């Protein structure tokens, strides 16, 4: 074990080693010799203790007035502002995304703190007239209890904040299992809440693998909500477990997001947008632009300009602010990227830029890959259908608007999409006909803001949305309350006819 710090599970407000006593190392994907910390390699015993702590804390937390819960979130938001730079640097070290983007990830959690704190004074329900005289009725939100949050590595602080803060403001308690590649950012997020006065047991952290921690956590009978972001494969497993236990289940899964460029587009803008959409976060965003659907009239020029500019992107460790593209998260993810490059070649797509992992000199201890672009991709190639989650962009040429929309929608996912055009009619038709949860006009497929609902159609999820006020539906249940002050029995649907 290196002399890097040791981080223990947070259970009931105190720090605990895993019951097994084992730990795992969190390494820097730009330099695997750099160990960020050792974390508890937990199992079901730790999960059981954490759920019990959360269940116990729920008894009092649910009764804290929501505006008072909000005050803790506001204070935590202020603390996170003060700690933003330090949190961003630690995030780049553990996850690899370039520093500018890590700052954005922390900022998203700050935004969510204040947005959900505001909800503490809203959480609106309805009042509505009764069909009877002397009768009052309303609907109110109620919390559910213990929420299991299972999160991926690509947004190490933002995604946990999207789940944790709405869970807390509605009066639930939480057990979070962070991704094992990026647990430290969750510690930083939770530390802000604890320092702001969050009572013990309201948020608990258990680190470890999906099989040893995620599985028993989501199966635990006292867990009432499972909020999961990750792969479609595990997501569908989570849905089945949730169905057996009659739990609320919210899933945010993969994407295969298209950006359409029409002949009349502003090409400078489209080139810049495609580079950011495809290679920002090294393509490791669920909203990454992975298909560029280009109308024939501009295909050759766009391809040439993109290839030249993608080849000029500087790849390297994200802590060096000259670099624009960081590493893939781990060896497995890098191998997936390499495999899809081979698949693309075998399918007959034309490699116009990149195509190789970077392993020499300064890259030797990291998981780096060249920004890669394939042209002459056709709509049913695996390259055009399957999520890669790496720096690989596929260009598909189409004849007209209708074909562009048809190709855009012809994948098993439906998270984000975009169109570049100067034709207002085409833009509005695209807004209507692109079957995704998010649509951008003259912007790439990435860049969601936290006060609108976030999520997708088809294989991207199960119909729920994160962020926006819509996320409150996942973490609360409606209770309709009828108050009869007539002093007599009034029977609905019977006595008023
Ligand atoms: P993953 O599904 O392997 O893991 C996600 C989380 O689930 C991790 O914390 C993991 O430990 C846990 N897990 C794994 N097996 C489990 C099990 N059997 N039971 C319970 N939990 C288990 O995904 P990943 O590799 O961490 O993340 C990359 C994937 O996530 C990509 O496919 C990407 O599309 C998707 N993603 C989607 C969104 C979105 O909002 N739609 C956002 C980010 C990432
Ligand atoms: Mn790491």
Structural shape:
globular
What's the number of extended β-strand segments?
A: 23
How helical, in percent, are the residues? 25-40%
Which residues sit in consecutive blocks of at least 5 with pLDDT less than 50?
Answer: none
Summarize the biggest pleated sheet.
Answer: 7 strands, mixed
Would you kindly provide a written description of the structure presented here, covering whatever features stand out?
The protein has helices at 44-61, 66-82, 84-95, 99-119, 158-169, 184-195, 210-219, 232-244, 267-279, 296-311, 331-347, 382-385, 401-409, 424-433, 472-475, and strands spanning 6-7, 9-11, 14-16, 23-28, 31-40, 135-142, 146-150, 173-177, 203-205, 223-229, 248-252, 257-261, 289-295, 350-353, 357-358, 368-369, 372-375, 392-398, 413-414, 416-420, 438-441, 457-458, 477-484. The chain is an alpha/beta fold and 497 residues long. It has two domains: 6-253 and 461-480, Aldehyde Dehydrogenase, Chain A, domain 1, CATH 3.40.605; 257-441, Aldehyde Dehydrogenase, Chain A, domain 2. The strands form seven sheets. Strands 14-17-18-13-12-20-21 form a seven-stranded mixed beta sheet, with helices on both faces. A five-stranded parallel beta sheet has the order 9-8-7-10-11, sandwiched between helices. Bound molecules: nicotinamide-adenine-dinucleotide (NAD) and manganese (II) ion. Manganese (II) ion binds at residues 26-27, 94, 181-182.
